[in-house]
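Q: Hi! First time doing this. I have a protein sequence and I read that you can turn it into a structure. Is that right? Here it is:
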Amino acid sequence: MGAIARLLTADGLYKFFGAFALGVGALLLPGEADAEVAVRAPVPAVDAPSTRKLETAVFAGGCFWGVEGVFSHVKGVHLVRSGYAGGPRGKKIGYDEVSTGRTGFTEAVSVTWDPQIVSYGTLMRVFFSVIADPTTLNYQGPDHGTQYRSALFPLSRGQAMAAQAYLAQLGKSGIWKDPIVTRVEPFTGFVPAEADHQDFMRRNPRHPYIARWDAPKLAALKQLYPDLYRPKPAA
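A: Yes, that's right. Below is the predicted 3D structure, encoded as structure tokens:
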């Protein structure tokens, strides 16, 4: 979202007027034009063991539309849901509240996958290669605020160990010139987002925000990891 779109989001109005705001010539703040660049992140040195037929973890990487959209095209992923994570346990929350940036919650996605086909480590690699920049504190691309921070929410001890190890590995990789600021946060629950936010990228491929910020991420997945890409998205 550009400058006008962010103001609308803060008031809970972006979902109604976002297309208009984004159509006014891509109003970018300094540094936003090249804020998100795909890279080939390293293969994780530590991965999480699988203990179930299907595994689940939560990722936060800016606006959940694109995070959900990209992960849904990864082979082995069964289900991706947009929602909110990182806030107080048991609290019910909605888009307008989270958009204030004062709730502790961040936009996030819950990803469920088949560990016989894809691993947690591979999903983290995809996440940092084409979805989230791990060096931008409390923002991704045009979206600013704690509700757009990048974070990993492991659901098991093995995932937590793998996530911590991978962030340390990324910091030593030399791929990014700035420090890694993505954090592993305790999982306190996942609140599904409203129905109009679910499967948004598939349902709105021509939406200006999707075209400007999220379609390039999906194209990067297909280009960098063709063996992981599948044309038909998961539910």
